[in-house]
Design brief:
578 residues, eleven-stranded mixed sheet, seven-stranded mixed sheet, 15 helices, 27% helix, globular
Amino acid sequence: MPVVDVDPDELRYLTGHDEKDDDELKSDLFDLGLEFEGWTEDDEFQLEFAPDRLDRLSVEGVARSLRYHYGDDRGVDVPNTNSADWTIEVEDQPDERPYVTGAVVRGLDMDDAALESLIQLQEKLHATMGRKRAKGAIGVHDLTMLKGDSVTDETGKSITYTSADPDEATFVPLDADAEMTPSEVMASHETGQTYGDLVADFDRVPAIYDAIGLFSFPPVINGRRTEVSVDSRDLFIEMTGTDQWTIDHMCNIVCYALAARGGQVEKVDVSYADDAPGEYAGKTLERPDFSVRTKTVTHDRIESILGVSLDSREVVDYAERAGLDAIETDAAAYEVEVPPYRVDVIHPLDIIDDIGRALGFNSLEPTYPDVSTVGGRHDRSRLEDAARDALVGLGFEDLLNFHMTNEAENFERMNLPMPDDGDAEAVGLADPVTIQEPYSEDYTILRTWALPSIMMVLENNTHRSYPQDLAEIGLAAGLDDSENTGVAEHRTVSGALARTDASYEDAKARLQALADAFDKDLETPPTTHPSFIGGRAAEVVLDGESVGVVGEIHPKVLVEHDLELPVAAFEFRLDALA
């Protein structure tokens, strides 16, 4: 869970509620879902909150939520923006990092607290939405130190997002006193060593130039020339990344935080070259994008989820107190407007959650459901428990792994080609269910089979004694257009024997015992599978139906997982034992 440091005095200043003592602030914050975790060495609150509310990664965002909670602000707030005076020309940028966005904020009265909050917001957004700067990286510059080139119509100024030779371009990076090339930054600068891997394999690295020269080397480090200080009044914000939506919304959150400090937001034109990679080639985007999204939610659903009766005026009131705008329609529903900084509102349930928080979940009285049923175990659950007991009886240790993984673990490290490149009939080879906006690069898909999870456990257990006989019964999934959800899920049984004498015969013997326990006829005709050794693998056929694979793990897979002894394994569908 994200933790943000917040100065309670800054909260009182930004909310306009000097009368609130620390205990009252903690209670109000708890009502919003922000939990007090302790004090920092500088006597600041440490607040933990749900990772979906990224607009609360700064004291300005937390103060905004409190003002709505207190009723001081209502409805959707969109800052006024001045017309664009600056343009970001985009040409010859790296294909691996094709997108950029930006904004200008003028008239700030920066002090130590405001600067510290801006730096913290930048770091927290890098760690969350930016995925450690891999998906999006933020650069904040003192505008007065930039010298813009004249744009085509000669009515404004421009900078250029492009690429540079890592061994030829030079600039003075932050925390340095001499000019360095990007290669030198990555090799010897502390920040460059931390983030240089993001662009180390690029033939030409991302670079941003003004009329003077290179001033930013994203996503690694900014130049010292444009460093922001407490004396800075006008800021230029640029963000580069691999996804336009992500950096645009990161930009919105930063702009809202600076607007809360009295800054005037000014638009920036982002002009993509005709041959630019990506979907915006030849287009000019006006940023920041403060467009308001609309969601529809029905009155019945609000009352059903919250368990209370509300009239339409109350629904509109609670929505406005949550920072939304709601208009009742003729269909007993509401058109709800969502502000640009709310990246978390995806589904009507998110709207209902906001309305419930404005109402106050602590004020809701629990009620018993008006149905009477007798609970019992599902047949699938009984089958799963029986199979798990049988595996434990055969000497396996039972595992419970995450159902989410990433493509490298699920396919590449198992010597398994991606679905488009291989045999679609192979066990584990299915189009994976991909998480659209994952918060971690380690968990980007639902696994298509369980054996990779067991191999990861073996990889992490090389310091423990052998033999290690591991098994898991768990979820696997893949895309399937024939399902009404578009996803086919099933329970899978997987086991692995890691020992000096592990062989195909050992794995088949355990499999045979498991089949006998469920009175199933087992056949094992030869087959091939990229994860297993050729000639030492077979199909798992139960009662005449092909349901899995058994064999000895391929040496490439063993080496990839740092295993120095053989592994025999099997995997098949649980429902085949029914």
